[in-house]
Structure formats: structure tokens, C-alpha cells
Amino acid sequence: MNLNRPELRKMIYDFNSISNRLMRVAFVEYDAVLAKFLAFLDGTEIIRDYIQACGEPTYDIAKEISEIVESYGHAILVLGDTEQEEVANIYALLKYICENSPDNDYSIAVSISLGYSSAKQYQEKVKGFNERVVMVLIRYIEAYLTKIGIDMGMDETVRYTITVNGGQANVAMDNATINAVQNNGVDVEELKRLIAELRASTPADMSEADKEDVGESIETIESEMVQPKPKKSLVKTAIKSLQAVKGTAEFAAAVVALVQFLQLYC
Q1: If 0-12 CB within 10 Å is exposed, 13-18 middle and 19+ buried, where does residue 83 land?
Q2: Residues 78 and 199 in one domain
Q3: 73, 119: one domain
Q4: What pTM did the predictor assign?
Q5: 168 in a domain, yes or no?
Q6: What element of type H or E holds 148?
Q7: How many domains does the chain have?
Q8: Domain presence at residue 23
Q9: Does residue 174 lie in a domain region?
Q10: What backbone torsions phi and psi does residue 171 show, to the nearest 5 degrees?
Q11: Above pLDDT 90, what percent of the chain?
């Protein structure tokens, strides 16, 4: 696949959007939204290649689901021992749910979610299933795309060819002219690492408005901190915007780490 950083950011934004919708879906609409989520995965080459590179599921998915359903909430699904196994198994589980749920009945996801929450409401049980199963797949894909962004560097104009081998992405620069950036004393590699950690820690269920604020703040920081003379006022505004976003403890820690780094230069 061939793409540049802006195209990758748009892909990540779309992935986060459909992931967020699935994580919040009403249980009576689960199959419809799951179908859209899987269609996005299958229709996005870079994600599809990653999933395929993780191999086949490690057990009989139909048999596993049947045993979970028959346990009436006394068992949960086996995910796997490695990243590749978890990705392959969860993807296959979701595919099975989408393709085999009755047309006029609750999704299979409801039946297998009974053991994922002690609450009586189906909605809470499906929420537990999403958080403990679906979110595992989402996090792996988020991390995979983030690592590709790190390998791309910060040049917005260069296009890269991305191939997948054994679940790992190989990023090669296409023929392009790269403009030199004046050294302003900023540790660019550390900046890239901190930004990658912030992106990876951004919750999938964060509101679209907050996600947009985070994305715009990161873009401002990236573009300014590689300039010979960064505009400190813009960077400080971006910092304030990040600090105003409410998220998980992991997200807050990533914001603090990035802010402490930027304060060395601004």
C-alpha cells in the first residue's frame, strides 16, 4: 500500500470513529454496526494485510462459541497467548458472529457476553464483552498504525510503500525530495516517541470533539517543533487544549510526559 502521513491520519480517524461506534452500540443493533466495523477492516488494505499476516484462528471458532453459549454465562472466550493469536481469533470470532446471528433475534454476541458482566442488563453484558474482547483487537490495530506513523517520520509530503510480513509492517520511502529542516535543538526522536504514546493511549470511546481537539493539537506540535523557530504561542495553545481533554489515566500520563518535554523548549 502507498500512502503519506495525512492519509494515514485520516485512516486512523476513520478507524477510531467506527471503533467508537461499535464500543457504544445498543445491543439490539450490534450485528448491523459490527458489519460496518468488519467492512472497514476488510476494505482498508493496510489493516486487512495486518490481520491476514497474523494467520488463522488457533481453534474451531464455531465449537468454541457453541460451548460458551451453552454455559449460560459460566465461561468466557479464549483469546490466545500472543498478539498474532489474539488478532486472528478475535477477528474470526467477530466474523462468525456477524455471519451467523439469526435475522430476527438477538445477536450471538449477546449470548456469548453473559459471562462478561454480573449486571442483569444485556447492554451491560455486551459492554463487558466489547471492553474485554473487541477492545483487544482495536488496541492492537491502533498500535500497529501508530508504529507505521513513527516509521514515516514527520515529513508530510513523502509517500511510503507499506508491506506486511509476519504481522510486522515494513515502511519504505518512495522516490521523493526531502526538504532539510534546520536543527533547533529539539530531540525529534523523543518527540516522535511521546506523540506516538499519546496517540496510542487515546481512548477509542473518547468523544469525537475531544478526538478532534487532540488530533489538531498534535498536528500543531508536530509542525511547529520541527521549525527552525517554533511559534511558542501556538505550541502553548496546543498544550492547553490537550490538558483540557478528559481521558483515562494512561492518556493523562501521556499528556503530562509530552508537556514536560515541550516545556524544555517553550
Answers
A1: middle
A2: no
A3: yes
A4: 0.61
A5: no
A6: helix 135-152
A7: 2
A8: yes
A9: no
A10: -110, 120
A11: 36
